């Protein structure tokens, strides 16, 4: 049962930002530097995981993961301005609307702190968020749900007064495990078929999401 909502926690990649292109090229660069050969887009898609670190571990092996992550981060930060797509104004408008209504906003992402803050500062989204939980924090990373529970706790909220917004099946499962009302968005990513034993609520545009959240305020 969801009560009057006071808190919204967002996933980052595929939800607030479309970072697929720069993530893909950063993975390819890291792979080429560590393995001394090229890496296909198909291979990266095949080994896609909830965090950059886990994805790189699958691509180059656990023993090379930390070295690959350094190359990934360097390429990501050096090429952010060239390869990253700025979020549509509707994302800013939605977040501004929620802040104007005194909503507490947080982020729970599988991305590292370094690249998370780089994205949020570059897009000027960082100003909207009160709490940001990344894979660099001292908690288990996605798909473990502890980060979502921690974000709610840090915002001094209750789970029955919170909403989690994400774009993947993993995000839906995280919300279910924490028992938080969850909405799936698909404006940056292709919709996917799901065989869930529970109802999946979706939003196809930031305006649609704003309206769905408003109905719970």
Automatic annotation (TrEMBL):
<dbReference type="InterPro" id="IPR041492">
    <property type="entry name" value="HAD_2"/>
</dbReference>
<dbReference type="InterPro" id="IPR006439">
    <property type="entry name" value="HAD-SF_hydro_IA"/>
</dbReference>
<keyword id="KW-0460">Magnesium</keyword>
<dbReference type="GO" id="GO:0006281">
    <property type="term" value="P:DNA repair"/>
</dbReference>
<dbReference type="InterPro" id="IPR050155">
    <property type="entry name" value="HAD-like_hydrolase_sf"/>
</dbReference>
<dbReference type="Pfam" id="PF13419">
    <property type="entry name" value="HAD_2"/>
</dbReference>
<dbReference type="InterPro" id="IPR023214">
    <property type="entry name" value="HAD_sf"/>
</dbReference>
<protein>
    <submittedName>
        <fullName>Phosphoglycolate phosphatase, putative</fullName>
    </submittedName>
</protein>
<dbReference type="InterPro" id="IPR036412">
    <property type="entry name" value="HAD-like_sf"/>
</dbReference>
<keyword id="KW-0378">Hydrolase</keyword>
<dbReference type="InterPro" id="IPR023198">
    <property type="entry name" value="PGP-like_dom2"/>
</dbReference>
<dbReference type="GO" id="GO:0008967">
    <property type="term" value="F:phosphoglycolate phosphatase activity"/>
</dbReference>
<dbReference type="GO" id="GO:0005829">
    <property type="term" value="C:cytosol"/>
</dbReference>
């Amino acid at each position: 049962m969801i009560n009057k909502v006071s808190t919204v926690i967002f996933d980052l990649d595929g939800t607030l930002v479309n970072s697929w292109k720069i993530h893909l090229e950063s993975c390819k660069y890291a792979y080429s530097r560590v393995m001394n050969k090229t890496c296909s887009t198909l291979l990266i898609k095949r080994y896609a995981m909830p965090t950059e670190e886990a994805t790189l571990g699958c691509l180059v092996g656990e023993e090379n993961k930390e070295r690959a992550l350094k190359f990934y981060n360097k390429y990501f930060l050096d090429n952010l301005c060239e390869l990253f797509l700025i979020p549509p104004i509707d994302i800013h408008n939605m977040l501004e609307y929620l802040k104007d209504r005194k909503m507490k906003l947080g982020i729970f992402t599988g991305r590292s702190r370094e690249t998370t803050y780089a994205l949020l500062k570059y897009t000027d989204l960082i100003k909207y968020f009160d709490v940001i939980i990344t894979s660099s924090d001292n908690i288990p990373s996605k798909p473990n749900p502890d980060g979502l529970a921690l974000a709610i706790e840090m915002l001094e909220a209750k789970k029955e007064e919170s909403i989690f917004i994400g774009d993947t099946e993993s995000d839906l499962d995280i919300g279910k495990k924490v028992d938080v009302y969850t909405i799936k968005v698909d404006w940056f990513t292709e919709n996917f078929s799901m065989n869930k034993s529970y109802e999946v609520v979706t939003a196809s545009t930031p305006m649609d999401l704003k309206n769905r959240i408003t109905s719970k305020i």
